[in-house]
Amino acid sequence: MTERENLLHLLRKEGYEKIPVEFSLCPSLVERFRKETGNPDGDYMEYFGMPWRHVGGLIPEDEEISRFLPYHGEINDHTTIDEWGVGHESTPTSMHMTKMHHPLENAESVEEIQAYPIPIYTEKKNGWVKEKVTKLQKRGLAAVGNMQCTIWETSWYIRGMENLMMDMLCEEEMANAVFDMVEKMSTDRAMIYANAGVDILFLGDDIGMQHSIMMSEELYKKWIYPRLKRLICKVKEVRPDLLVFYHSCGYVEPFIPYLIDAGIDVLNPIQAECMKFEEIYKKYGDKISFHGTIGTQTVMPFGTPQEVKENVKGNLDIVGSKGGLFVAPTHLLEPEVPWENILAYVEACREYKNG
Fold it and tell me: For residues 259 and 266, what is the distance between their CA atoms, to the nearest angstrom?
């Protein structure tokens, strides 16, 4: 099987020939990779034979960022504005993270929200996506449409989390205006990826915290779940075989039944520090597959290489020979992760015997 075929079989629990590897490196670890491998321009995804590639970000009809400037006032030299109009300010200690500036933070009416110049995405503007998908698949790689900020995160990035939470509780017309705007944009983006033939649509919103869910089940069920379900239903109407990934950091177990009902196929990342994979698999492993499970707050930075290998093998043993787990670190690998532990993860995957 090609890398693509092997991955898709594994995710569909149809068996597999080998365990694929996958991880993301922070900038300093990219430099470490290049130093260790003696390749100053090296691509670690190519080097380690990862089975998928993201096809790239979609291009909005209006690429002019200046239309968002009135929503921000004075902007310093350390701040950039993204295609949604959200400001990102870097600080001396932020590394690859940023402080966000929310363009609709001060909006006081539905009309202000509805007037916001949210990006519009069309297939005509993004005809290049289908060509890139085809090229990846011809190389034997799975093509991924990546939009891991889908409904909740995109909405609060634009409105501000505290404001949006208050809208959900006290100003429902305001909340509906924000969510409806973002749902339409996200659905348009998802349909472009689906019609282009991607193998995987990677959705997501961080709806969990370290030890608890981010909002009540009641709020989630009212505001987020139906919009996610509508989006996935529309996508699967045109692509029933499309695999839908869903990402949320943190503790999300109470939300898993809603995510399954909404139509997700693969849940990422099952954060090891707040959920036990064996327990999650026993409850939901007959309904969905999983991606992740190897802790990036614990074993990857602070474990020994042997402990990394034991984690990988232990989680793969739970799912058995049919598959259902694309085992990987649960998040971006940060500077404190030893190079030896990255190699241990790769070796554990390559050494694992099917069944």
Answer: 10
**DSSP per-residue string spanning 142-181:** EEEEEE---SHHHHHHHH-HHHHHHHHHH-HHHHHHHHHH
**Integer Cα distance of 333 and 30 in angstroms:** 10
DSSP 8-class letter at 25: B
The whole-angstrom separation of Cα 228 and Cα 160 is 20
Give the sheet arrangement for strand 289-294, strand by strand: 52-54, 142-147, 200-204, 243-247, 266-268, 289-294, 325-329
Overall pTM surpassing 0.85 (yes/no) = yes
List C-alpha distances in Å: 281 to 32, 278, 284: 35, 5, 5
- Kind plus residue range of the DSSP H or E element containing 129: helix 128-138
Helix or strand run (H / E) with residue 306: helix 305-319
Q: How do residues 194-231 score in pLDDT, each as one tens digit?
A: 999 999 999 999 999 999 999 999 999 999 999 999 99
Q: What's the rounded Cα separation, in Å, for the pair 10 and 16?
A: 5
Task: List the structure tokens of 338.
Answer: 């030893």
Residue among 316, 307, 303, 309 nearest 347 (CA)? 309
Each residue's pLDDT tens digit, 39-63: 888 899 999 999 999 998 999 999 9
Q: Could you give the domains of the chain?
A: 3-63+107-351 (3.20.20.210)
Encoded tokens for 87: 């400001």
Question: Cβ distance 152 to 220 under 8 Å?
Answer: no
d(CA 6, CA 17): 6
